[in-house]
Design brief:
The complex is a heterodimer.
Chain A: H1 8-16, H2 21-25, E1 30-34, H3 36-44, H4 48-57, E2 66-70, E3 75-79, H5 88-100, E4 107-111, H6 130-133, H7 138-157, E5 164-167, E6 170-173, E7 176-182, H8 183-187, E8 191-195, H9 220-224, E9 240-244, E10 254-258, E11 268-274, E12 277-282, H10 285-294, E13 296-299, H11 311-316, E14 321-327, H12 331-337, E15 340-348, E16 360-366, E17 369-374, H13 379-390, E18 397-401, H14 413-427, E19 431-434, H15 437-443, E20 449-458, E21 464-475, H16 488-492, E22 540-549, H17 562-579, H18 584-590, H19 595-608, E23 625-635, E24 642-652, E25 658-668, H20 675-694, E26 724-729, H21 745-760, H22 771-782
Parallel strand pairs in A: 1-8, 3-4, 9-19, 17-18, 21-22, 25-26
Antiparallel strand pairs in A: 1-2, 2-3, 5-6, 6-7, 9-12, 10-13, 11-12, 14-22, 15-20, 16-17, 16-19, 20-21, 23-24, 24-25
Chain B: E1 2-6, E2 9-13, H1 21-28, E3 47-50, E4 53-56, E5 69-71, H2 73-76, H3 84-91, H4 101-114, H5 120-126, H6 137-153
Parallel strand pairs in B: 1-5
Antiparallel strand pairs in B: 1-2, 3-4, 3-5
Helix pairs in contact in B: 3-6
Classes of the chains: A alpha+beta, B alpha+beta.
Bound molecules: FE2/S2 (inorganic) cluster (FES) (2 copies).
């Protein structure tokens, strides 16, 4: 191991976080849980912070979370997972307080600073629940610290550790609580360096005192009184304002820039060009905005886009990268022998993250060093990509996560960080960039478009005996990782996105992975001689996915691909149930074997007051407003949560308006870290799902995206009549926590489509269900 | 020179009168509350209250509000002593990322100050131009309803 020395960035970052380095140096004492480096730090006579900061800055050393309890009892916790709006900050604080047995207000949490916090990859919804994030990191570090303190107390009190209880920052004799010693007393003036104990005993959810409670978010008072500083509010000394000038059409290339066109404008610092990138830097934000608008730039025409009207058909004709998820090999013969077969095709559009705040970042690149403040979901990834972009070693860059507008996946946070970094490098001063609404929307990494063919065979009793899925999806670029070209700004600066590599045929799978729920829950999921991995009973199964190259940048959008696939599965399941005149809930249960999925299905149906009968609802008229109910469920990709939903929906058959009146959601996410937090997520994601189902679609013309503001890309406002949302949380204290931020959104589109069918007898197989589309389908069916 | 009165403090600023108020508030005065969301008067996140009315500061030239009383979310209350509507949002845990809060809180406050007897439907109507992409709608409307009820009963 290299001799650790503390980087100046780490010192500065620690100072910014209010960590008193002197407290350690002056020997006022601390207990620090770290990892292999803790011991090395002791041997080398370094403060643990120095050692950890150095090790964290070295990409060759893998750090986990760490924690420091200072002599005054304050706990500083470092997490590589960040707050994106889902309550992570709160739950991680609760987690530390719980495992360490200290009051919540003693915990200070630092999230995602390269060189300071551990590299825990991307903070995303997929891995997202809360405690799930730090099951092995932060939680174990805190448990290790508690265990160590109990050990120290055992010595100091002369009582075996087994007879002691940690509570409120002190250790008590269990049988005589008048005898106790505080953590501060235990630490005294000494410094303890403790390696992480992977076997440290976590507090069981049944013992939880802080976790598992619906405690209000600690950061909310600051948010609602505008005390919380978002990256959008960050101002650093000497800061200038930048603004990119994105091309007018997809694929347009830069011909020339006429700088004289803005020579009369005030405050202009520099016009920057690189490859197909153009940006301006000015003293003030409004000056930069005006300059970017007035700057005369000549662009080449670019390449034509495929027609949007024919896009789903176009997808099928493209070279593709194929993946066989599962193939029992007998599907064609089982279909041929089936009493009945059914097929249907489902279509899902490109959609936007559409953050309410356009993305913003501040970068300070000068004197051989760079600091980037960004709302990125992956600070280490952004550091790597920025190093490529700026042509400097990653160690010279520090990326500091600073909160942004809710992102729901990869919004413009990384792209705008590249804007800021390049412009700052060019002017040698700090530069803040906030994208225009149009630059955010026309160039972000959209959620993937899908077209999916489903086919099943039924036996004489109406059971599904074979299921065939074939899907096409379009993607390009993605999270930057070390590739700035995976997002628009980096691409315009001359970097390529990850190459598209067609592959036909697909290699056979070696294990069962649902591939973002491409495999429906109703399949057995048997690959080779492994235990079947699916949640269902249909043994004759084939899932074949084709990935084609998209004309746009794409990336994970809340419940990525899982939502699109689940829309197709759960709508189709409903169609099949209707065909055999079965109740849709009972029919689902008939084809499932996973008790956790079956558990949420039953709970949601019960909570809703589901009346067992086939769809469509008998007796509904063909005009005016009719009511229906729909159901959907999913076992999220690779055991990441189980959720079911029943929806009560009104359809106005005269104008095609769909109004969702009530949703009942049952969710099994293992032990719940904060019930109010998870309900907030389930409610928000459900309404987000309604918006995505009813209104949202990226549109384009022959050469450019035509959805670039809130008139051309619709979202449901606070004036929309929204349903009453009821959430049922399954009590699963003995399981592992799973993701929850994407849970309910995965099934909304199908639940609504199924309810519309129940109400009208008309099936919608393409999202969004705009009034025009609903109306057109109703008219088509009455012909 | 433009005289501005923001959150009770008078300022005289050397800014171009055509500059949208938002940039002056957030850049020259360093306020966190009003935020750029769209710059097109479509979302509400830049909302401030001017002489009792909620306006979208991204689309109002600073010159047009000289001498007016301007209140931003920063000026309404403090974390220790939040304004009752802010307290209602805390009580209902009515936020996720919180970026939209200026639009949601101040639009509701200005509306209820003028229409203290408004019913649920009228409140919803008043909020119809305000966007929250985290879709915290249900909780936000509950918080607004709570504030409206407390205000009526006060
Ligand atoms: S930023 Fe002013 S309304 Fe959107
Ligand atoms: S809370 Fe995130 S946009 Fe409203």
């Amino acid at each position: 191991m290299k001799t650790p020395t503390m980087t100046s960035d780490a010192i500065a970052a620690l100072a910014r976080e209010g960590v008193s380095r002197r407290a350690f140096l002056k020997g006022s004492g601390a207990l620090i849980v770290g990892f292999s480096v803790a011991g090395a730090a002791g041997r080398l006579g370094l403060t643990p912070e120095e050692a950890f900061a150095q090790a964290a800055a070295d990409p060759n050393i893998q750090l986990d979370s760490w924690i420091a309890i200072q002599a005054d009892g304050t706990v500083t916790a470092y997490s590589g997972k960040c707050e994106l709006g889902q309550g992570q900050f709160m739950v991680q604080s609760q987690l530390v307080a719980e495992e360490l047995c200290v009051p919540l207000d003693r915990v200070r949490l630092t999230q995602c600073v390269t060189g300071v916090t551990p590299n825990q990859g991307t903070t995303s919804g997929a891995g997202s629940h809360f405690a799930n994030f730090n099951r092995a990191g932060l939680a174990l570090a805190a448990a290790t610290a508690r265990q160590t303190l109990v050990g120290l107390a055992s010595t100091s009190l002369g009582v075996p550790a087994a007879d002691l209880t940690a509570r409120d920052g002190a250790v008590f004799v269990t049988s005589d609580t008048s005898r106790s010693v505080s953590y501060a007393e235990l630490i005294g003036g000494r410094t303890f360096q403790v390696p992480l104990d992977k076997a440290a005993v976590r507090r069981h959810p049944r013992e939880w005192a802080v976790l598992g409670k619906p405690i209000g978010r600690v950061d909310l008072p600051d948010m609602v009184t505008a005390r919380l500083q978002y990256v959008h509010n960050l101002r650093v000394p000497g800061m200038l304002h930048g603004r990119p000038v994105r091309p007018p059409s997809v694929g347009a290339t830069l011909v020339s820039v006429d700088e004289s066109s803005i020579k009369d404008l005030p405050g202009i610092v520099k016009v920057v060009t690189r490859k197909n990138y153009v940006g301006v830097v000015a003293q003030k934000p409004w000056q930069a905005i005006q300059a970017a608008e007035k700057l005369r730039v000549n662009w080449s025409a670019g390449s034509p886009l495929p027609s949007q009207a024919a896009y789903y058909d176009h997808m099928r004709t493209q070279p593709s990268r194929d993946t066989i998820v599962v193939d029992s090999g007998d599907v064609p013969e089982k279909l041929a022998a089936a009493a009945t077969t059914m097929r249907a095709t489902y279509r899902y559009p490109f959609q936007m993250h559409g953050s309410i705040g356009s993305s913003c970042a501040v970068a300070d690149v000068q004197n051989g060093k760079a600091t980037i403040w960004a709302a990125s979901q992956n600070v280490y990834g952004l550091r790597g990509a920025s190093a490529t972009l700026l042509g400097v070693p990653p160690e010279t860059i520090q990326v500091i996560f600073t909160r942004g507008s809710g992102c729901y996946g990869i919004n413009g946070a990384d792209a705008v960080a590249f804007d800021a970094a390049l412009l700052s490098q060019e002017v040698g001063q700090p530069v803040r960039v906030q994208l225009s609404r149009k630059d955010e929307m026309a160039w972000e990494n959209y959620g993937l478009a899908f077209v999916i063919d489903q086919q099943i065979g039924l036996d004489a009793q109406g059971n599904i005996v074979a299921w065939d899925y074939e899907g096409w999806s379009a993607s390009r670029g993605g999270r930057p990782g070390n590739r700035p070209g995976n997002v628009a700004s980096g691409f315009h600066m001359g970097f390529e996105p990850a190459p598209f590599q067609p592959r036909t045929p697909s290699p056979a799978p070696t294990e069962f992975l649902t591939d973002n729920n491409a495999a429906p829950a109703y399949m057995v999921g048997r690959v080779g001689s492994h235990e079947p991995g699916g949640a269902g009973l249909v043994a004759s199964e084939r899932v074949l996915s084709h990935r084609i190259e998209s004309p746009f940048f794409n990336g994970p959008l809340r419940a990525p691909e899982q939502l699109q696939n689940t829309f197709a599965h759960e709508s189709f399941m409903d169609e099949v149930a209707a065909r055999v005149k079965a109740d849709p809930v009972a029919y689902r249960l008939r084809h499932l074997r996973d008790p956790r999925l079956m558990g949420v299905v039953s709970a949601a149906a019960k909570g809703f007051g589901w009346d067992a009968r086939p769809s469509p609802r008998p007796g509904n008229r063909q005009r005016g407003v009719v009511n229906g109910r729909g159901f959907a469920c999913v076992a999220r990709d690779e055991g990441n949560g189980w959720v079911a939903m029943a929806a009560d929906v009104d359809v106005n058959q005269d104008n095609g308006q769909v109004v969702v009146k009530r949703l009942v959601i049952a969710c099994d996410a293992g032990p719940v870290s904060n019930p109010d937090g998870i309900r907030n997520q389930l409610e928000g994601a459900a309404l987000h799902g309604i918006s995505r189902t009813l209104t949202e679609e990226v549109t384009w013309d022959s050469n450019k995206v035509t959805a670039f503001d809130w008139r051309t890309y619709r979202t449901l406002s606070l004036g929309t009549t929204m349903p009453k949302v009821e959430t049922i949380l399954m009590d699963k204290p003995d399981e592992q926590a799973t993701g929850a931020g994407e849970m309910s959104i995965t099934i909304v589109a199908a639940a609504l489509g199924n309810a519309i069918f129940d109400a009208t007898g008309v099936r919608l197989r393409q999202v969004p269900f705009t009034p025009e589309r609903v109306r057109a389908e109703l008219l088509a069916s009455s012909d | 020179m433009i005289p501005l009165k923001v959150n009770g403090t008078a300022h005289t600023l050397d800014v171009e009168p055509q500059t949208p108020l938002l940039y002056v508030l957030s850049d020259d005065l360093g306020l966190n509350g009003p935020k750029f969301g769209c710059g097109l008067a479509q979302c509400g996140s830049c909302t401030v209250i001017v002489n009792g009315r909620a306006i979208r500061s991204c689309s109002v030239p600073v010159g047009s509000v000289a001498n007016a009383e301007i209140t931003t979310l920063d000026g309404l209350g403090t974390p220790e002593n939040p304004h009752p509507i802010q307290k209602a949002f805390i009580d209902e845990q009515a936020a996720q990322c919180g970026f939209c809060l200026s639009g949601v809180v101040l639009t509701a406050k200005a509306f209820l100050d003028q229409n203290p007897r408004a019913n649920e439907e009228q409140i919803r109507q008043a909020m119809s131009g305000v966007l929250c992409r985290c879709f915290t709608h249900t909780r936000m409307l509950r918080a607004i309803g709570r504030y409206a009820a407390e205000r009526r009963n006060a």
